[in-house]
Amino acid sequence: MKILIAGATGLVGSEIVDLCQQRNIAVSYLTTSKQKIVSRENYQGYYWNPNKGEIDLECFKGVTSIINLAGANIAKRWTPLQKKRILNSRINALMTLADGLQKLESHTIEGFVSASAIGIYPDSIANYYEEDETEVDDSFLGKVVLAWEQEIDRFKQFNINVAILRIGLVMSGKGGVLTEMAKPIKYFVGAPMGSGEQWQSWIHIHDLARMFLHVLEENITGVYNAVAPNPVTNVKLTKEIAKVLEKPLVLPKIPKLFMRIALGEMSYLLFVSQRVSSKKIEESGFVFDYQNICSALEAIYKEKTKQYKGDTCSNREYVP
């Protein structure tokens, strides 16, 4: 297997690259910076510029699978310009990959798997979402994910296996949402958001990297939720982060209005509730290493904190 990765230097991409190297899987990657092109055994960079539709067609040479992770960070204030970047970065990346494939006389690609997001599901405290849900969240993010997935469907024209992973909150000690949630807790100003009852579907970054390779290795097609089996409420997640960091939570819950003033429309990400099922990916044969938030956080912080203290979680915290 030889994998071409778009977004290889990001948080998730770096984890996938590390896993590929452990398994002796060759990786080609795309970068918008010619200075970041590296050439070594089983790891080769190629230049592309999705905003201009430019791509080095040599990147497809010998490739059997493509992983697409390209897209601007959604966790920045949603100004009109940033909204445009969030949408265009995802659509332009996919269009550039597809246009590149169309220019080839032949190719060796068998599978294509792209990141998506659980942000497509409507905000709901009560619902438990599976992949066949047809209603789309009436928010900026919901509209972005819908357009994103419609563009991914273009790759079916190449007669290859096409899969979509709708990713939840990625738990990692190297950056991303967990790092941002942990910051105020470390400085004794952490607290649940709003009611704290909103559901947050998450996944350990190690399991997410494994899932991308599982999809390719098993020739899986279709849409799958990339979330752990046990979603948690914002209150639960906040408390468990505080517990593993051995920090108290002393402040009251943070009102929606306060965060709306501070972050603008982007504050929606803090209060949206999406309880999402992992049943379909598990039925494909994928086995999670981290099924509950306690074990996931313990693994992430085991080298940074003392041995985890407090009540242990059962293997399944939530059973719908």
TrEMBL record:
This is TIGR01777 family protein. NCBIfam families: yfcH. Residues 254-300 form the DUF1731 domain. InterPro entries: DUF1731, Epimerase_deHydtase, NAD(P)-bd_dom_sf, SDR39U1. Belongs to the NAD(P)-dependent epimerase/dehydratase family. SDR39U1 subfamily. Residues 3-225 form the NAD-dependent epimerase/dehydratase domain. It comes from Arenibacter nanhaiticus. SUPFAM superfamilies: NAD(P)-binding Rossmann-fold domains.
